[in-house]
């Protein structure tokens, strides 16, 4: 393995990490800030991707498609929050798990009912497609660089929103004592609806952006959901910084594990056995990472202690 | 209020015998299979309920123990089937098709796994605990998928159900009887456990660990013991489930299964003795009734579950029997 | 009476729906009222499939089972169903165990042995003169079988052999490895969404090595989602909608008329399965198992893929074609460009002792 | 003018009724002491005023308007500032964030609160959860003041405070009373200290008001009967 | 009267720049009530936490009944007989008063790993619990869930729990907080008798109670003990007046 390839793989790892962050951002927001375990986050991600694919198919415009993803997911978020989620804030996590699990079923099969069982088409627009050449003669797809950019922007924006604005303070206050913040004159229900919609919109955006280089299909949200949970738990719940660091860590571990482990095993094993064993361990790697992090830091890297 | 729950519990158990008996007399063996499934998954839920309901340990990784139980059955039985010993060194160990032996192995190994996973996971709490238990189950899942010796993703089919002395296990009603008796024994154990000093201290640690420490009891040890007991019961259920299907596969380790077990527990009523059984019965009935109605039946399932969470707070048992020993 | 257990809900539902639709279309066209089809959804879970099989056998008292899409579900259901004396006709999955040691006289595979299309790809790679191929597949039994199948006919060097995680969605790392490996071609087996992701990302990476793969990632149902990234790619299949025979032409036309979409590979397999069954029903009574088995074995029906016969292990002996993805107007579809393997049986037949 | 009035208010926790008809009024600029033994319903009364629990029957009026159905946050914005029993600081926020979270414009701001409780200014960057008990109590009072209320409700606001701080708080209350029209409803266990600041008293027993009058009118007989001293 | 039951020597603890305990030395002798007073944030609760084992001191040692317990966990110290109450009531909300106290009895008996015995059918356990409940005057409320208790009642439950442990020394953090005048005087009476069972280290801001009860009073200011003495000595100490008591208390 050459140095250039290694660098490229590190870059791939970082890129994958940022992509994960984009998926995890909305989840941290809702989960960390509002204390709600939202398993349906993956469904909102799917809603965004489907909305984008539908609009892109109808209009041919990628930007409109992104706007549609944001809008559709936000609206879905508002509806879900007002009908269901609102009643779950003061319940324990278990009720939230069950209710949002039910939402997954409704969303998935509802989407299949509307769009059918086959994957949809959503592609990178021509002006963002193809590779560009980075220093060191690394060929790198432009679109992935765009995703990195968007991810970092979202990270910065969220960080400022939560830690620097009054809105952020109030949201966090509500997380610690909803009844009390209301008794002090803050309309926490509206605030929470807004936050949930924002989280949903971020999920939708992630779904649409990522959907262009993956497949837009029913059930696409589930693996993402688990990964996003892994990320925010490693980073520490409620911490935007943690989510970013967690994503990068998971991205790097996964990518490098996938490429390096088989090589590593190859040094003392027969080649084809090494590829299977290496791949098997690589597929467990992020879970091993998560377990190790939690064993040494029971509340994640940036979690409150 | 307590009384009402006891009467309800009795009614549920009676119903669980009556339905398969009726099905047996009217030649509907599939209904018996379904009832057996309820009993087995209910048993797994009862195991989870000890950790989750009494101990407050929300494990999203109980599929790990369920799967270990299943694979204990699969591995032992497949070796017995092919007359290949498991290993010959340091001592010769043969496979077996005897249920009691398989159960014992399932219980021991899932208990050991729970000890290990619990010892590490219990350092965390809350959502972190949920996720770290999930992580361990996922590791086993991916391991099982890519481990070729025992079928990988394809799993293992055991063509003939294992044997139990004196019974013909291939007869659905007899196999049901086995699972039902095990379920009842476990429920009895669970009922004793909840009122015992251990159960009381465990429930106290769920609500306020600091208080429990202040009276000189170590919550970590309580929880670990509860987690191990819980894992062993779920492991036993896994072995039975494998025998019910005469088949094991990595999906037994999947997070869907962990999720379903949680759904059973909440649906019936967290911390209720028969909660998981009621939950499993409702879920499985819905699955089979709705499945025949529409291709999009999961929408209806989703709506129903949602209704239960929003309206029937504290699970179905709480609605019928009142709050009683509720944990709100 | 036929029990169909297939995947109708969740992620992989498209395949099951196509098999079902193809099957029911054939039944409808036959006008045969003796046949009753019970369809159930297995949710792609082996446990559910096993229970449904029990239900079909015990309660519905079906004579023939069919419909399963996935190998692992087939492994769960088929052995015990055939052990109970039922017939099983596989419209899609063909795991190697069931072709070899685990074969059974009541088990008929109407699609292919799992390795077939990969073997075709390997044969094509050899014919096309590939010398240094990079191959990848998910790390599970079907994935290892796929790479083994490819290597069985491919004769060049391997630039790399990679197993990916099942369900993986991001292939940047693998694509970088491909770029660095000095390969002259790529073979991949990534069913479902994995293949879509891979192809989109591959085409965006700017690498333009020739790619070959089994038909699964280029099938009608999935192709539109891959988009132009798939154009020109060679893939191997035992069926294509442009195979020119009367049965196929009629099938494509009537399927489109009935369901308003182009038929997929899976639909063709469902259609063939039903026709095989109907042909046997015309010759023998299902209650006479031996006669019925013999009737099935004759495979006396007009397969949409042309010549079709069963080998000694009740698996097809058939041609594997090479197709190329083309665009017909706005619609992506496939065109046959050659034959990779003629009258191919499978590698496990001699292990089958029936 | 009457600012707050409760007439025959009842309320329950689930099936258990806690208030059986409480009536009281607080006039503008008035300091009213709400008294009674443990568990008699003082806190429950306050919770109904702040709409943290539903009024079963009877009526709560604030500024001439029935607030039986007004949501909690609206009531607060109409001008009620609450220092709840048990402090209930936002544990995961810093001192400063606790203070600004619900602040509304007016005389009370971070500077004036810091002046009242210098200790808070010193620890402004500390997470509330790690404050000492008394510091949390100060924070809760400061937080309520920052909403610039017209009616301040203090539920055991001096619990756990050092005598010297308690004196400061009572002094502050006296100053507020003298310099602004702020009305105060106060629950506290020290009758002696209440007597020095309150104008009126309402005594609650088993969820009903049993004695109302000027604080100076509380006789030994009344304290013996209702307050158990 | 001079047996030292509990002592801490030169305990120091810092939170970042804040020195919450500075070389604090303190002892508790058999049969006495030793009151610890001081301004809010002086470090009283922090000190109690270090003595009870909930927090590790940076430096210094804690001795209990002649053992060096500095390295023992809170649980082990509780088992040795160190009973504590929390400044903010800490009860098991879903348990009844009786169950709460029975749990403490169980802790004292030291065998919570019984899987079959029915806890509330164990006579001695329940009897012991009921005695403790009666001593704090909660006998009428024994079947009420702790969550449904009023604040003052919950404080009493807290004390009953500490009693049930039959400790060799009590650490009480503001036991009077939230009690009405009546409750406070009852509590004063209770503590007065309690000191003969086990000595009490008492943190309290209720000066009436402190002056009435304490054999000795130590005053902690900014993490340091600035004075130790009898009620009268402390009452007349000018520095204590300035830092803590203010003017009225001395009147
Ligand atoms: N959350 C609750 N659920 C059920 N009952 C409650 C709850 N909170 C209080 N109660 C009951 O309501 C009654 C009145 O309680 P409340 O807290 O209003 O008393 P209080 O006068 O404020 O007493 P204290 O001086 O102890 O604070 C008590 O009998 C108490 O047991
Ligand atoms: N974990 C912590 N991190 C930072 N500072 C802390 C922490 N715990 C306590 N402090 C600070 O240490 C000081 C002492 O706190 P402590 O709780 O011991 O005070 P106290 O004497 O009990 O006061 P009170 O009488 O108000 O309860 C306070 O200023 C507090 O803010
Ligand atoms: Mg109160
Ligand atoms: Mg303190």
Automatic annotation (TrEMBL), chain A:
The chain crosses the membrane at residues 16-37, 44-62, 68-85, 97-122, 142-162, 183-213, 225-252, 273-296. Keywords: Amino-acid transport, Cell membrane, Membrane, Transmembrane, Transmembrane helix, Transport. One of its GO terms (biological process) is amino acid transport. It is a multi-pass membrane protein. Pfam families: BPD_transp_2. One of its GO terms (cellular component) is plasma membrane. It is found in: Cell membrane. One of its GO terms (molecular function) is transmembrane transporter activity. The keyword Cytoplasm does not apply. CDD domains: TM_PBP1_LivH_like (cd06582). Belongs to the binding-protein-dependent transport system permease family. LivHM subfamily. This is Branched-chain amino acid ABC transporter permease. It comes from Oricola cellulosilytica.
From TrEMBL, chain D:
SUPFAM superfamilies: P-loop containing nucleoside triphosphate hydrolases (SSF52540). GO terms for biological process: L-amino acid transport. InterPro entries: AAA+_ATPase, ABC_transporter-like_ATP-bd, ABC_transporter-like_CS, BCAA_Transport_ATP-bd_LivF, P-loop_NTPase. Transmembrane segments: none annotated. It comes from the Bacteria. Pfam families: ABC_tran. Coiled coil: none annotated. GO terms for molecular function: ATP binding; ATP hydrolysis activity; branched-chain amino acid transmembrane transporter activity. Keywords: Amino-acid transport, ATP-binding, Nucleotide-binding, Transport. Residues 4-229 form the ABC transporter domain. PANTHER family: ABC TRANSPORTER ATP-BINDING PROTEIN, HIGH-AFFINITY BRANCHED-CHAIN AMINO ACID TRANSPORT ATP-BINDING PROTEIN LIVF. Belongs to the ABC transporter superfamily. This is ABC transporter ATP-binding protein. The lineage of its organism: Bacteria, Pseudomonadati, Pseudomonadota, Alphaproteobacteria, Hyphomicrobiales.
UniProtKB/TrEMBL annotation, chain E:
GO terms for molecular function: ATP binding; ATP hydrolysis activity. The keyword Methyltransferase does not apply. Keywords: ATP-binding, Nucleotide-binding, Transport. InterPro entries: AAA+_ATPase (IPR003593), ABC_AA/LPS_Transport (IPR051120), ABC_transporter-like_ATP-bd (IPR003439), ABC_transporter-like_CS (IPR017871), BCA_ABC_TP_C (IPR032823), P-loop_NTPase (IPR027417). PROSITE patterns: ABC_TRANSPORTER_1 (PS00211), ABC_TRANSPORTER_2 (PS50893). Residues 6-247 form the ABC transporter domain. GO terms for cellular component: plasma membrane. The keyword ATP-binding applies. Belongs to the ABC transporter superfamily. This is ABC transporter ATP-binding protein. The lineage of its organism: Bacteria, Pseudomonadati, Pseudomonadota, Alphaproteobacteria, Hyphomicrobiales.
């Amino acid at each position: 393995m050459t140095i250039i390839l290694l660098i490229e793989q590190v870059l791939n790892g970082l890129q994958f990490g940022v992509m994960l962050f984009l998926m995890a951002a909305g989840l941290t927001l809702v989960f960390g800030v509002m204390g709600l375990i939202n398993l349906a986050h993956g469904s909102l991600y799917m809603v965004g991707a489907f909305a984008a694919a539908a609009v892109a198919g109808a209009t041919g415009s990628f930007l409109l498609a992104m706007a549609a993803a944001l809008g559709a997911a936000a609206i879905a978020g508002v509806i879900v929050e007002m009908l269901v989620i609102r009643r779950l804030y003061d319940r324990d996590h278990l009720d939230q798990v069950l209710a949002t699990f039910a939402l997954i079923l409704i969303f998935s099969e509802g989407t299949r009912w509307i769009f059918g069982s086959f994957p949809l088409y959503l592609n990178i627009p021509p002006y963002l497609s193809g590779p560009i050449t980075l220093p060191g003669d690394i060929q790198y797809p432009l679109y992935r660089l765009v995703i990195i950019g968007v991810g970092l922007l979202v990270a910065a924006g969220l960080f400022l929103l939560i830690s620097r604005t009054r809105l952020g303070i109030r949201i966090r206050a509500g997380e610690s004592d909803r009844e009390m913040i209301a008794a002090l004159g803050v309309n926490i229900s509206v605030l929470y609806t807004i936050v949930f919609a924002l989280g949903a919109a971020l999920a939708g955006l992630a779904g649409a952006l990522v959907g262009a280089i993956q497949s837009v299909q029913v059930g696409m949200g589930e693996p993402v959901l688990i990964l996003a949970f892994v990320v925010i738990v490693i980073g520490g719940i409620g911490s935007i910084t943690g989510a970013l660091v967690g994503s990068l860590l998971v991205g790097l571990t996964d990518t490098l594990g996938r490429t390096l482990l088989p090589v590593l095993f190859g040094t003392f094993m027969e080649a084809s056995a090494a590829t299977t064993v290496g791949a098997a361990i690589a597929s467990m790697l992020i879970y091993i990472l998560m377990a190790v992090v939690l064993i040494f830091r029971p509340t994640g890297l940036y979690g409150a202690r | 209020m307590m009384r009402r729950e006891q009467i309800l519990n009795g009614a549920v158990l009676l119903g669980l015998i009556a339905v398969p008996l009726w099905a047996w007399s009217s030649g509907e063996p599939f209904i018996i299979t379904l009832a057996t499934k309820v009993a087995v998954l209910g048993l797994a839920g009862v195991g989870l309920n000890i950790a989750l309901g009494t101990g407050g340990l929300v494990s999203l990784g109980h599929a790990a123990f369920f799967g270990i139980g299943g694979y204990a059955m699969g591995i032992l039985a497949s070796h017995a089937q092919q007359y290949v010993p498991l290993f010959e060194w340091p001592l010769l160990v043969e496979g077996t098709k005897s249920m009691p032996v398989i159960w014992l192995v399932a219980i021991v190994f899932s208990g050991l796994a729970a000890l290990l996973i619990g010892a590490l996971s219990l350092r965390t709490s809350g959502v972190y605990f949920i996720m770290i238990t999930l992580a361990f189950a996922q590791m086993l899942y991916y391991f099982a998928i890519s481990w070729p010796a025992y079928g990988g993703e394809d799993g293992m089919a055991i063509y003939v159900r294992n044997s139990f002395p004196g019974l013909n296990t291939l007869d659905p009603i007899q196999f049901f009887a086995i699972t039902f008796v095990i379920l009842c024994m476990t429920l009895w154990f669970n009922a004793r456990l909840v009122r015992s000093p251990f159960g009381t201290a465990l429930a106290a640690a769920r609500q306020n660990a600091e208080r429990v420490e202040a009276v000189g009891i170590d919550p970590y040890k309580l929880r670990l013991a509860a987690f191990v007991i819980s894992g062993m019961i779920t492991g036993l259920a896994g072995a039975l489930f494998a025998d019910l299907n005469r088949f094991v596969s990595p999906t037994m380790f999947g997070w869907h299964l962990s999720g379903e077990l949680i759904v059973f527990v909440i649906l019936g009523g967290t911390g209720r003795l028969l909660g998981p059984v009621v939950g499993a019965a409702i879920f499985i009935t819905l699955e089979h009734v709705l499945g025949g109605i529409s291709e999009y039946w999961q929408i209806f399932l989703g709506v129903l579950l949602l209704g239960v969470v929003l309206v029937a707070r504290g699970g179905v048992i709480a609605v019928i029997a009142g709050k009683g020993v509720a944990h709100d | 009476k036929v029990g169909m257990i297939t995947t109708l809900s969740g992620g992989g539902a498209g395949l099951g729906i196509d098999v079902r639709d193809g099957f029911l279309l054939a039944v409808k066209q036959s006008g045969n009222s003796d046949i009753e089809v019970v369809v159930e959804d297995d949710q792609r879970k082996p446990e559910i499939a096993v229970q449904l099989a029990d239900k079909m056998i015990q309660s519905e008292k079906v004579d023939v089972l069919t419909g399963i899409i996935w190998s692992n579900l087939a492994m769960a259901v088929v052995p015990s169903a055939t052990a109970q004396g039922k017939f099983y006709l596989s419209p899609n999955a063909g795991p190697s165990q069931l072709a070899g040691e685990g074969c059974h006289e009541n088990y008929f595979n109407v699609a292919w042995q799992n390795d077939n299309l990969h073997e075709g790809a390997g044969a094509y790679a050899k014919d096309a003169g590939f010398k240094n191929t990079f191959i990848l597949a998910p790390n599970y039994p079907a994935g290892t079988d796929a790479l083994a199948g490819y290597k069985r006919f491919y004769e060049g060097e391997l630039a790399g052999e990679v197993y990916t995680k099942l369900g993986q969605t991001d292939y940047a790392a693998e694509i970088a490895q491909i770029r660095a490996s000095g390969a002259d071609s790529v073979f991949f087996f990534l069913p479902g969404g994995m293949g879509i992701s891979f192809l989109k990302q591959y085409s965006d990476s700017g690498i333009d090595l020739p790619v070959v793969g089994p038909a699964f990632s280029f099938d009608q149902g999935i192709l539109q989602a891959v988009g132009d990234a798939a154009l020109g790619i060679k893939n191997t299949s035992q069926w294509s909608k442009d195979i020119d025979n009367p049965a196929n032409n009629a099938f494509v036309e009537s399927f489109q008329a009935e369901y308003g979409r182009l038929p997929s590979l899976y639909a063709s397999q469902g259609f063939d399965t039903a026709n095989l069954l109907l042909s046997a029903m015309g010759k023998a009574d299902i209650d006479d198992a031996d006669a019925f088995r013999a009737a099935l074995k004759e495979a006396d029906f007009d397969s949409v893929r042309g010549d079709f016969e069963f080998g000694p292990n009740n698996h097809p002996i058939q041609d594997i074609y090479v197709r190329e993805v083309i665009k017909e107007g706005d619609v992506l579809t496939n065109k046959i460009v050659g034959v990779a393997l003629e009258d191919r049986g499978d590698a496990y037949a001699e292990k089958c002792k029936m | 003018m009457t600012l707050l009035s409760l007439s025959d208010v009842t309320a329950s926790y689930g099936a258990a009724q806690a208030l059986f008809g409480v009536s009281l009024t607080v006039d503008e600029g008035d300091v009213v002491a709400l008294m009674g033994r443990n568990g008699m319903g003082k806190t429950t009364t306050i919770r109904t005023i702040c709409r943290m629990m539903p009024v079963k029957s009877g009526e709560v009026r604030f500024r001439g308007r029935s607030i039986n159905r007004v949501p909690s946050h609206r009531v607060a914005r109409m001008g009620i500032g609450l220092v709840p029993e048990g402090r209930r600081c936002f544990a995961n926020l810093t001192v400063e964030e606790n203070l600004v979270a619900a602040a509304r414009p007016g005389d009370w701001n971070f500077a004036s609160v810091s002046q009242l409780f210098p200790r808070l200014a010193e620890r402004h960057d500390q997470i509330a959860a790690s404050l000492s008990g008394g510091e949390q109590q100060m924070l809760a009072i400061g937080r309520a003041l920052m909403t610039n209320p017209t009616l301040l409700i203090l539920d055991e606001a001096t619990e756990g405070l050092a005598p010297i701080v308690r004196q400061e708080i009572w002094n502050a209350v006296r100053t507020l009373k003298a310099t602004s029209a702020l009305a105060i409803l106060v629950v506290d266990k020290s009758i002696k200290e209440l007597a020095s600041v309150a104008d009126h008293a309402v005594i609650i027993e088993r969820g009903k008001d049993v004695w109302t009058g000027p604080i100076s009118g509380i006789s030994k007989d009344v304290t013996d009967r209702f307050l158990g001293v | 009267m001079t047996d030292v039951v509990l002592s801490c020597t030169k305990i120091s603890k810092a939170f970042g720049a804040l020195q919450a305990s500075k070389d604090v030395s303190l002892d508790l002798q058999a049969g006495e009530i030793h009151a610890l007073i001081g301004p809010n944030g002086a470090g009283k609760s922090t000190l109690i936490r270090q003595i009870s084992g909930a927090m590790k001191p940076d430096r210094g040692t804690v001795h209990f009944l002649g053992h060096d317990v500095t390295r023992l966990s809170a649980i082990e110290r509780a088992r040795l007989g160190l009973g504590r109450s929390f400044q903010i009531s800490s009860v098991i909300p879903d348990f009844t008063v009786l169950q709460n106290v029975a749990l403490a009895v169980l802790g004292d008996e030291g065998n919570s790993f019984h899987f079959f015995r029915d806890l509330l059918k164990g006579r001695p356990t329940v009897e012991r619990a009921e005695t403790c409940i009666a001593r704090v005057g909660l006998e009428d409320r024994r079947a009420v869930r702790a969550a449904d208790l009023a604040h003052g009642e919950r404080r009493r439950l807290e004390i009953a729990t500490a009693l049930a442990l039959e400790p060799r020394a009590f650490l009480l953090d503001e036991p009077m907080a939230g009690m009405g005048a009546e409750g406070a005087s009852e509590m004063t009476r209770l503590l007065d008798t309690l000191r003969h069972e086990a000595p009490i280290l008492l943190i309290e801001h209720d000066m009436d109670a402190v002056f009435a009860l304490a054999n000795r009073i130590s005053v902690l200011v900014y993490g340091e003990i600035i004075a130790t003495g009898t009620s009268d000595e402390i009452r007349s100490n000018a520095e204590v007046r300035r830092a803590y008591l203010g003017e009225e208390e001395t009147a």
